[in-house]
Amino acid sequence: MPGIGVRYDLTTRENRRLSVIAHRDGDRTLSAYRKEDPDECALSTTLTAGEAEALVGVLMPSHHSPNLLSTTELGLVAERIELSSTSYWNGRVLGETRMRTETGASIVAVLRRAEAIPSPTPDFRLAGGDELIVIGTREGVETAAAILGRA
């Protein structure tokens, strides 16, 4: 598109047509077309470069994990980590893990069977099958998962 930018077209597996115009100023125009009439535009919105980048981050997160609960612009993630029954920490108290000191991440809740235990104290006894909700930086949470997975 001379003088405007580059147009990219995509047809989904549901036979829906989408297009993105990458403007030379960094903005993006996202358009979706009607399934019944692929020439009729059903939605068109212009995104700033920052908004387009945020959309890409949602569609293709750099660290995707099925256990990832949420992430923030501050660089913090919340993730669910299951404690194996063969883990070194099975039957030990939470304080022994030195989780916050070693990783900077915090265990903010434990899910055990149908019960949620918010803000577990250092004397809380861990058990195989517990799902720990850990919040911290991506690196801190990954280190926490490695520590908790220790056999």
TrEMBL record:
Gene Ontology biological process terms, A to Z: potassium ion transport
Source superkingdom: Bacteria
Domain RCK C-terminal: 66-150
InterPro entries tied to this protein: AAE_transporter (IPR050144), KhtT (IPR026278), KhtT-like_N (IPR058776), RCK_C (IPR006037), RCK_C_sf (IPR036721)
Signal peptide (residue range): none
GO MF terms, alphabetically ordered: monoatomic cation transmembrane transporter activity
Pfam families membership: KhtT_N, TrkA_C
Name of the protein in question: RCK C-terminal domain-containing protein
Record lineage: Bacteria, Bacillati, Actinomycetota, Actinomycetes, Kitasatosporales
